[in-house]
């Protein structure tokens, strides 16, 4: 809805007190480095346990899709694990796949009737997506989703780990 607030924050997403935080996972759902490692470290073993159950049911998570687990020991009640695309130069459908990450995460949060969600800068770490292009997709996709769907969400937060992403998002959210 038009009255959902979009906020910007710099820092560690594991400390953020939204109903859900989003994890930039990999398709195995078994954990990794970067934000994925930080979330599993801070959230404890309950998150990995649920990821393993999901994996047993559906065999991991394809790129662009999302699954939801408990937040374990995190301040957030839920973690939404989504798998960003690896950047291959832009001709392998990367923008649409990255947009799907944001859409499917927002859809899961809405299905759970959550009021707030926080996103990291999906794919801009090890997966190598150019930060400016990724920020554009993230901001546009979230804005479009909120305009086009009835949602329980009152607040969407972009959590930037580094100052370059912070600057890019600031620029993009100016108006
Ligand atoms: P990907 O494989 O999707 O690129 P990464 O975890 O390598 O995932 O990086 C995604 C983004 O998350 C990067 O911008 C990285 O700087 C950021 N990041 C890493 N640790 C954290 C954290 N604790 N909180 C928020 N963002 C983080």
Automatic annotation (TrEMBL):
Keywords associated with the record: Hydrolase
SMART domains the UniProt entry points to: A1pp
Keyword Hydrolase attributed: yes
GO molecular function: O-acetyl-ADP-ribose deacetylase activity
EC number(s) reported in the record: 3.1.1.106
Domain (Macro) ranges: 1-175
EC class name: hydrolase
Protein name stated in the entry: O-acetyl-ADP-ribose deacetylase
Pfam families in alphabetical order: Macro (PF01661)
InterPro entries named among the record's database cross-references: Macro_dom (IPR002589), Macro_dom-like (IPR043472)
CDD domains: Macro_OAADPr_deacetylase
PANTHER family: GANGLIOSIDE INDUCED DIFFERENTIATION ASSOCIATED PROTEIN 2-RELATED, MACRO DOMAIN-CONTAINING PROTEIN
NCBIfam families: PRK00431.1-6
């Amino acid at each position: 809805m038009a009255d959902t607030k979009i906020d910007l924050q710099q820092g560690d997403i594991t400390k953020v007190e939204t109903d859900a935080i989003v994890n930039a996972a990999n398709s195995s759902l078994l954990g990794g480095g970067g934000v994925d490692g930080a979330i599993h470290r801070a959230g404890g073993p309950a998150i990995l346990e649920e990821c393993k159950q999901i994996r047993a049911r559906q065999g991991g998570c394809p790129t662009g899709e999302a699954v939801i687990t408990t937040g374990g020991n995190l301040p957030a009640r839920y973690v939404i694990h989504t798998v960003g695309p690896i950047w291959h130069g832009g001709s392998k459908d990367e923008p649409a796949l990255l947009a799907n990450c944001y859409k499917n995460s927002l859809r899961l949060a809405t299905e759970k009737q959550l009021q707030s969600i926080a996103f990291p800068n999906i794919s801009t770490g090890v997966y190598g997506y150019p930060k400016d292009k990724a920020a554009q997709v993230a901001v546009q996709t979230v804005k479009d989703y909120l305009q086009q769907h009835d949602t329980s969400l009152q607040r969407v937060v972009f959590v930037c780990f580094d100052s370059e992403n912070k600057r890019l998002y600031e620029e993009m959210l100016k108006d």
